[in-house]
Amino acid sequence: MTKAAVGYSENTSSREAGAEAARAALEKLGGDAPDVVLLFGTAKHDPSRLREGVRSIVGPEPPLFGGAAVGVITNERMGYDGYQFGVALLSSSDARFHLFIEKNLPDNEYAVGRALGAAIRAHGSDPDNLLLLYDIVKRQVSTGMSLNMATPLLQGLGESLGAWPTTAGGGTMGDMQWSPTFQWFGDEIENHSAIALSMSGDLQMHTAILHGCKPSSPYYTITKAEENTVLELDGRPALDVITDLLGSETKWEDYPLFITLGVNNGDPFGDYNEDEYAVRLCMDVDRERGGLVMFGDDLTTGKQVQLMRRSISFDYIAQRAERLFEQIGDRRPVMALYIDCAGRASAYSGTDREEAEEVQKVIGSRVPLLGWYVGCEIAKAGSVMQSHNWTGVLSILSASH
Question: Higher pLDDT residue, 89 or 255?
Fold first, then answer.
């Protein structure tokens, strides 16, 4: 049988926070020993001291898997930009858990993805489900902010895997100041790595993307792009096109963390289908060349994009989450994971409520919930495995009994 439990702490002492969250989770597990420990904490914590606190409760055996997060979400608690720390324990006699890592990610994303996929395949059996994490911060703001890119990482990983298992994940970051990140892998503390947790056996992961945007323009073709900068749309400077669409009231200085472009992986002439869309968020502007600097580098010449309108509908989030439970059918839900864009938090999105609260309401007490805020989200859009921005990825783990 597979069981899960979650604990949470906002203790400012990292070791005590680790022990407090792990103790709360272990008590809920009802005496079973955990087979794997998921853990996420903000950059205000010392990851080694958090590890010490967790180990003091769960012992030396179960492997640790997780990393930095802007904030943490559980069934009843949530917070960000503080000392939030969350732990999930998974115990199962019917599931198998394996950890994989590839290091040296900066400027090496494709090769790291290929190697990580090869390691997973070489293990001997295709995984049923993958939880994929990578450090999104290559350089922090003080040294000239730069990000590790998910697109080549996913391309390399997909080529090695051949066929994607059900996969969810994200680019980890510990705060909105882009501080250096960290990961827990086994008993080590890593950074600049891509890590994967394979879950097989009597365990299935059901995943849905919860968008916060809808199309608000016709399609535009990218006619010039360089790395992760969109320079031209339909032969005109990208900034000029966006200015025409938004009007003069919105200044280009406001575009970072506001402008979003959507890619439709489905029928371009069909009705809007959120399952087919991936969203890209602008992180900066190239004023000199009239370009939009995006979080992803997959907006290449020839691709069609639409300007997206931010529209976090709380009813929509609740409906999508409820529909995911319905997809499980007769299987028993075990645990929910919510990988949420940090930009969707009310302090950064300007909403008067937290959209994660809607996920909490739907999950209720049905299953333990562990969520964390990330810099980009990973899930399929249509048939394409890719990264997203301004999106939530909700996954429910289920067992047959």
Answer: 89
Contacts of 259 (CB under 8 A, 6+ apart): 242, 281, 282, 292, 307
Convert the pLDDT of each residue in 319-363 to its tens digit.
888 999 999 999 999 999 999 999 889 888 778 889 999 999 999
Residue whose structure tokens are 């669409």: 245
d(CA 58, CA 119): 28
CA distance 376 to 135: 10
Q: How are beta strands 213-215 and 384-388 bridged, if at all?
A: unpaired
Burial 352-387 (b: 16+ CB within 10 A, else e): eebbbebbbebbeeebbbbbbbbbbbbbbbbeebbb
Other C-beta atoms lying within 10 Å of the C-beta of residue 323: 11
Task: Give the CA-trace dihedral at 233, 237, 242, 244, to 10 degrees.
Answer: -110
Which neighbouring-strand residues pair with 64?
37, 186
**pTM reported for the whole predicted model:** 0.91
